[in-house]
Write a structure and sequence with these properties.
331 residues; alpha/beta; seven-stranded parallel beta sheet; Rossmann fold; homodimer
Chain lengths: 331, 331
């Protein structure tokens, strides 16, 4: 942490690490609270080629959510989307296990076309974010392919096969982030983390195994987070030992880890400086050896999202100030 | 023509050469009249890659028309199609000059995927025709790419740029069928033309320059039509010196050719044994040195299509029988 820079009076500069739906809720809160001061580094380990199209589920969830175009009821895809393409594809005998709405499809077709034309995923994402009027910067963790692969007793499953087709039913033995060793952190992500004005890094309440670990698997990412010398805080995706949505608790159980704040802190050990946990997990606080902020973390409304975003930023700023005082006292 | 085979009592075996909308109307009539005895060889010179997808406009028009899925009012695309994809694509800044309906898109995505997987256009088309319950065999003229290119005073235009984007406004100086010299007639087309049971070949009332000439440009096609030794008849796309739809008459004028039956017969000279012309062009008959059948060729209803199909087949059978008698008399 930087002990010398005075607290800024303007919006704190934040980098958020984020997966899909759950993480995007907090990313939206951060964007509404702090606008262009926010960069969201998004998991692309779920990306896959489907029907010959490059699909980036988490990027799209963040784009649709921050762009005011997400389907809030369904929890994925575009608001008000229609399904004529899927019906016609079914009629042609095509693969229909992964649903692509008619509007959503434009994103995949146009992204695929631009990627083939040599435009990077980072650049394509920036252009779409601009068109959607998003103030925050949305950054794929890498422009190279990383494939989150779920190792089950019956063998390896690509992420979407596990998550969508098999509905997270197979037992998770291990996760592999194939290609990660060859992936390069994008220049834009590196720049966001090296920004001397950066105030904090917030790990959104995304699935640590499926959504955050792929980001951390990009070579240099962990080192860059540490080198940033700002507080790194994680928002627990657990509420009362359960995930709000998705298989976090189930996977923790399958990996032999208790689904609680301590296990989560251990998972992120050496990387995080503080944790935000839900009020229902208040009892976990005593068992944690890092600073904890207890707050309502369930985000039902936009106000909930913005409130939690402010709580996270305030908590991180406190940690920074404490650290500055401690370093000052040590002189 | 085969003089020895007796006239069959079952449905005549027919091969039709066909472009898009106008030709597909007669192809539908032929299919309703003679079912599985009909093979339709379809122009693929209009095929192009758009948004990274392989689009085959004439193949699709024939599939949708014979499969009962064509939009009869609009004249192209799928019945009842919707435009959410196009709206979303516009929002992303994508190319929107070529309209792709949400249902129609499934065809292009699935075809592109299958072609990349090594499945031929012929095989893909056969599978779709089967799924659409089409009795006739629909055959792309070739599995290799032929690109109809319109040479205008301002330079070369790919077919769809000329036809859709420029709405056929540029003056046509010349047409090129790029890649034709390297294209191979598909085995299925060759087999249909070599079928010893074949009774006649019917050139549908498609644009001779834009839709039929690309088929004839495939190496070996003209020779195969002649080698079939059955009557080849062409249905004039002109009615009273005008095309029902499309730029046939305009192109003929630009190429310095009068838009009449004689010019059309001259265009197909050496290839055709007879011509079906509309009642409104009855006066042209005297100027033609090949057998002529005068009939109402405007196809408004399904009954019109079936009636014209029967007229064509009957005319071709007459020519065959006359030829047989002539050969018999010459012995």
């Amino acid at each position: 942490m930087s002990a010398t820079r005075p607290a800024s009076s303007c919006a704190p500069r934040l980098v958020a690490l984020c997966g899909g739906v759950g993480g995007a809720k907090l990313a939206l809160g951060l964007e509404r609270a702090y606008g262009g001061a926010v960069s969201v580094v998004v998991n692309t380990g779920d990306d896959f080629e489907h029907l010959g199209l490059h699909v980036s589920p988490d990027i799209d969830t963040v784009l649709y959510t921050l762009g005011g175009r997400s389907d809030l009821e369904r929890g994925w895809g575009r608001a008000g989307d229609t399904w004529q393409f899927m019906k016609a594809l079914h009629e042609l005998g095509g693969e229909t296990w992964f649903q692509l709405g008619d509007r959503d499809l434009a994103m995949h077709v146009e992204r695929t076309r631009q990627l083939r034309a040599g435009i990077s995923l980072t650049e394509f994402t920036r252009n779409v974010a601009e068109r959607f009027g998003i103030a925050a910067t949305i950054l794929p963790m890498s422009d190279e392919r990383v494939e989150t692969t779920v190792i089950t007793p019956a063998g390896a499953l690509s992420f979407q096969r596990y998550f969508v087709e098999k509905q997270c039913i197979p037992v998770v033995r291990r996760l592999e982030f194939r290609g990660a060793e060859r992936a390069r952190m994008s220049d834009a992500v590196a720049a966001a983390l090296r920004n001397p004005g950066l105030d904090a890094i917030i790990v959104c309440p995304s699935n640590p195994y499926l959504s955050i670990d792929p980001i951390l698997a990009v070579p240099g990412m962990r080192a860059a987070l540490k080198a940033a010398e700002v507080p790194v805080i994680v928002v627990s995706p657990l509420i009362g030992g359960q995930a709000v949505k998705g298989p976090t608790a189930k996977i923790m159980a399958e990996l032999g880890v208790p689904a609680d704040s301590r296990a989560l802190a251990a998972h992120y050990a050496g990387l995080i400086d503080g944790m935000v946990i839900d009020e229902s997990d208040r009892a976990d606080a005593a068992a944690l050896d890092i600073p904890v902020c207890v707050a309502p973390t369930l985000m039902r409304t936009l106000e909930d999202r913005v409130r939690l975003a402010r709580t996270c930023a305030d908590f991180a700023m406190q940690l920074r100030d404490q650290s500055a005082r401690a370093e000052g006292a040590g002189r």
